[in-house]
Amino acid sequence: MIDYRSDTVTQPTPAMLAFMQQAPVGDDVFGDDPTVNALEVKTAQMFGMEAGLFCPSGTMTNQLAIKTHTQAGDEVICEELSHIYQYEGGGIAFNSGCSVKLLQGNRGRITAQQVEAGINPEDVHKPITSLVSLENTCNRGGGACYEWSEMQAIQKVTKAYHLPLHLDGARIFNAIVYKKEDPRQYGTVFDSISICLSKGLGAPVGSVLLGNASFIKKARRWRKVLGGGMRQAGYIAAAGIYALDHHIDRLANDHYKALQLKEALLKKDFVSEVLPVETNIVIAHIQGKYTPATLVKILKEKNILCIAMSPTQVRFVLHLDISDDQLNETLEVLQSL
Ligand SMILES: *Cc1c(COP(=O)(O)O)cnc(C)c1O
């Protein structure tokens, strides 16, 4: 199977597995796991932040950030397609008791002006706005990246209103590679950042929440409450360290492949539009002889997996387990449809 369903489907490479196996470990709930500690320090330094917290999933790192930044009854500002709202099981309400102010952005990206307009005034009728959350790259926006200047402009607004600014950076390394950014820039703009090691970087499990020391101390307590305190977690943290050392620059290859896939899709009369491709996600609008569901089925019969993203869209995600040969085979299959 050639699996484009998500960049989470990757298998650890033999070199990654070997590195995991030799990792020194300890009980991380006691703070004794040297490999987890090394990963937390490494990621914090990379992004110019004080501290990190290793977690089982990006959902947990996002939810811990929301829980730590807010009080029950508050409101969180985010884009309407954002993962924290769409794909975290109602966790904002369940874990934090917060409502959301959903903004309609451009392929998942919102502007400083929209953020400012979304902040509630001091008024007993209104929930207290207590957090702004951005996503970079934007999944439902087809892997769209923020402009650096826009994130800075948003920070200017959140600072003026004394609001924390969170980044769901599940695919932050795709944005960093595409935009040729330095991760440390992000530490100057955001109060907390969630990064995923199990997406394009190819680790089997794990995300890290980054922030200042007192924020991470509080988040660590909430991680325990949610049952996310892991013991000899160094084996999986080692996969993250390996991925950060070896799998960042190669993301450019996934982006190049995504562009080729986009070109092949645009040639088909059953594709009305493909969202602009910047990184590793290709979202195509389907019309005519196929629906997203029937196209997914036909491709599956030809050993190609992708997902129906909405009643009108299919999504393909590139990652390190899609080889050049597999991409070429996909392009041939598409040509034949
Ligand atoms: C995948 C993803 C997450 C986290 O997902 P987990 O499966 O819980 O690790 C968060 N945000 C975005 C945008 C994602 O794509």
Q: Topology of this protein?
A:
Elements: E1 2-3, H1 14-21, H2 34-46, E2 51-55, H3 58-69, E3 75-79, H4 83-86, H5 91-96, E4 99-103, H6 112-118, E5 129-135, H7 148-160, E6 165-169, H8 172-179, H9 183-189, E7 192-196, E8 207-211, H10 213-225, H11 234-246, H12 251-266, E9 271-274, E10 281-286, H13 292-301, E11 304-305, E12 307-310, E13 313-317, H14 324-336
Parallel strand pairs: 1-11, 3-4, 3-5, 5-6, 6-7
Antiparallel strand pairs: 2-8, 7-8, 9-10, 10-13, 12-13
Pyridoxal-5'-phosphate binds near residues 58, 59, 83 and 198.
List keywords for this structure.
337 residues; alpha/beta; Aspartate Aminotransferase, domain 2; Aspartate Aminotransferase, domain 1; 2 domains; seven-stranded mixed sheet; four-stranded antiparallel sheet; binds pyridoxal-5'-phosphate
Plain-language structure description:
- By secondary structure, this protein is an alpha/beta fold.
- It has two domains: 14-246, Type I PLP-dependent aspartate aminotransferase-like (Major domain) (Aspartate Aminotransferase, domain 2, 3-Layer(aba) Sandwich); 250-336, Aspartate Aminotransferase, domain 1 (Alpha-Beta Complex).
- 42% of the residues lie in helices and 18% in strands.
- The chain has a seven-stranded mixed sheet, with helices on both faces.
- Helix 2 (34-46) runs parallel beside helix 11 (234-246), helix 3 crosses helix 10 and helix 6 (112-118) runs parallel beside helix 7.
- The longest helix is centred in the C-terminal third of the chain and has 16 residues, at 251-266.
- The protein is globular, with a radius of gyration of 20 Å.
- The mean pLDDT is 98.
- The protein binds pyridoxal-5'-phosphate (PLP).
- Residues 57-59, 62, 83, 135, 139, 168, 170, 196, 198-199, 207 line the site of pyridoxal-5'-phosphate (PLP).
